[in-house]
Amino acid sequence: MSTLKENDTKKEREYCRFQTSLDAYIYDNKCSVLNISQKGILMTGDIKGRFFKIGETIPFKIKIKNKLLKIRGDIKWVKQDINGFNIGIFVKFVPTEYLEYLENLYSEESTS
């Protein structure tokens, strides 16, 4: 995995983001995690008939090391079209395993 280095926002990010490919589920609909950090997640998927509101808190699950972790977060932005959506989520409630996973990513990045 690698960190995202491109200047993708107008301000500097507080936490390092890592490109990844993890299975995830929003309302039991399968999605994919494209990048992950201590405070945010970028997901993509196709949820028919579902509209997301900015600021809405949603529950979702991410599969890490063959375990589904339950997480909640606030929707920060959504880009939706006929193929599905990209959604930026500010994570609020995460299990310890999520933080341990990120610690491992940080360790791998600092040794490479």
List keywords for this structure.
disordered N terminus, about 110 residues, mainly beta, 1 helix
Mean pLDDT equals: 84
DSSP strand count = 6
Given as residue ranges, the uncertain stretches (5+ residues, pLDDT < 50) are 1-10
How many individual helices? 1
Strand content: over 45%
Distance between the termini: 10 Å
What string, H for helix and E for strand, traces the elements in order?
EEEEEEH
Q: Assign a percent range to the helix content.
A: 10-25%
- Helix-strand category: mainly beta
Neighbour order of strands in the largest sheet: 1-2-3-6-5-4
Structural shape: globular
How can the largest sheet be summarized?
A: 6 strands, antiparallel, barrel
Structural account:
The chain is mainly beta and 112 residues long. The chain is 14% helix and 50% strand. The chain has one helix at residues 96-111; strands at residues 18-26, 29-36, 40-45, 57-64, 67-81, 84-93. A six-stranded antiparallel β-barrel has the order 1-2-3-6-5-4. Strand 4 (57-64) and strand 5 form a beta hairpin. The radius of gyration is 14 Å and the shape is globular. Residues 1-10 have low confidence and may be disordered.
How do the strands and helices of this protein lay out in sequence?
Elements: E1 18-26, E2 29-36, E3 40-45, E4 57-64, E5 67-81, E6 84-93, H1 96-111
Antiparallel strand pairs: 1-2, 1-4, 2-3, 3-6, 4-5, 5-6
